[in-house]
Fold this sequence. Notes:
Number of domains of chain A: 2
CATH architecture of the largest domain in chain A: 3-Layer(aba) Sandwich
Shape of chain A: globular
Low-confidence stretches of chain A: 1-21
Oligomer: homodimer
CATH class of the largest domain in chain A: Alpha Beta
CATH topology of the largest domain in chain A: Rossmann fold
Helix content of chain A: 40-55%
Largest sheet of chain A: 9 strands, mixed
Amino acid sequence: MPFSWRGAATALAVAAPCAAFALEPLPSWNDGDAKAAILSFVEEVTAEGGPAFVPPDDRIAVFDNDGTLWAEQPVYFQLLFAMDRAVELAAADPDWASTPALEAAASGDVATALGGGEEALLEIVTATHSGLTVDAFTAEVDAWVEEARHPTTGRPYTDMVYQPMLELLAYLRANDFTTYIVSGGGVDFMRAFAEDVYGIPPEQVIGSMGEARFDIIDGEPVVLKDPGIAFIDDKGGKPVAIARHIGRRPIFVGGNSDGDLAMAQWSTAGDGPRFALFVHHTDAEREWAYDRDSHIGRLDAALDEATAEGWLVVDMSKDWKQVWPK
Amino acid sequence: MPFSWRGAATALAVAAPCAAFALEPLPSWNDGDAKAAILSFVEEVTAEGGPAFVPPDDRIAVFDNDGTLWAEQPVYFQLLFAMDRAVELAAADPDWASTPALEAAASGDVATALGGGEEALLEIVTATHSGLTVDAFTAEVDAWVEEARHPTTGRPYTDMVYQPMLELLAYLRANDFTTYIVSGGGVDFMRAFAEDVYGIPPEQVIGSMGEARFDIIDGEPVVLKDPGIAFIDDKGGKPVAIARHIGRRPIFVGGNSDGDLAMAQWSTAGDGPRFALFVHHTDAEREWAYDRDSHIGRLDAALDEATAEGWLVVDMSKDWKQVWPK
């Protein structure tokens, strides 16, 4: 059995009442305003009888994935998965790369493929993410996660998660929060590793969704991933997805880009205590530095609103003692 | 605070290890094959170290709502809600009933409204279920549940739930199952009462969904219910919805009609122990008797397949000591 954050978090949760003074929470966060704000919010909403107490069932925390829980440069990791899968599919079937976009992808030409704009991307994602069952797709992602390495760091992608955010997830769960991913990434893609890497089980992963259908093939009932996009879980889609999937308004929201603004606005507009944080990528040395002008994970309107609303803007270079897991 | 099945179920779950011999499970089920089959399945999958053991995280149980957890005659209760709401909306705005179908609904003429076929129904549901926030809609359903009475029994609709099924839900949860509703009913409609009535929290209710969008209205971020249907959670839609929302294949499935056949096929096709039950409405005296020829809740192909596959067919008149809660 591989190491599981879920198991670790459960153990921590069970131990929490006794271990509150023994285990220092958020060890990879530097002491300072950011860490203090998080600790203080969680202490307030969990203080039974206190004025800000929130019952455990309503302690819903939602997190974007790309750029919030793991890195997203030079491009969303799921696109790199799609490109790698295109190479494989084209190798198995010489007729597979039937369009310029698919040809570029199949030859591993990331720049040309991504240069084709949204339409080309949609074509590549659709062609690499459909025509198989959800179970078979999960197995493909599992294999990729095992083998693929990031182009500049050489690390497995699932090692490019943020240690301070892993600690934040575990800390929230130890305080009876339910932690969800609410991300533009594909739901089946993220579920393949979310439980092992983040301790977040499949039913707490919300994402973009492709078309799908039930069928019986050779006597076997299956759910098939079809071409086409059914739902984009980004911007205004995030609060809609949360309303549909969870049916409660989160009290804690974490994001890093303008795509997370609507979910932060909607979550913090609820009654009672609310917390929003935005990860600000300020760390060109240990990770990347980008915000208002970035094509990936642009943080512009949300940076202004975070400042105006007093949401926590996490300064990666200043607030994080350590970026990656050891 | 109203009586909550969730609270009761939680208490039962907490007490379960000690109370297993003190509390007889499923008291409203007659002793016989049906009850024995359920008890035996649950004992097997929870027997640690046994050959059929299933870890708690994978103990996913899904239930249809209409005709499985509560009654559905003479017509789905949500349609009666839509009709009642049409009368209210038309009273508040004389121009509201702008089509023959809406006119019929607004004058309380259920027969004509329902006689208009699927298109008329869609018009009535859309017009009564959109143009307001999810929160406002929930409040409307809450008020209706409080006041409305069933046309023939005179009972509140939420009293027309099946006592044996409430006990089954609680029994499964006491054995570390997670219980979901997976129903053709609207997700926002069902969530308004599912926690109080069934002990099933909003995030474990899966249903049909209308179009929705995020907006900021007078400075207030909201999720608005729009006209139009985004997803029909029936037949082949059910396994798709389960795959999307839960991301695990259930090991226990309960339904009552052909609309539940695909979800039973897909769930029971998974590896390891699986259980499917269909409620057969055989009790004209205490409830209703209908199956192959019914317009509502037709049980035809699924009855044949249940027999062929050895799924449990619950004979309501024979297997249930009591139908309604006292």
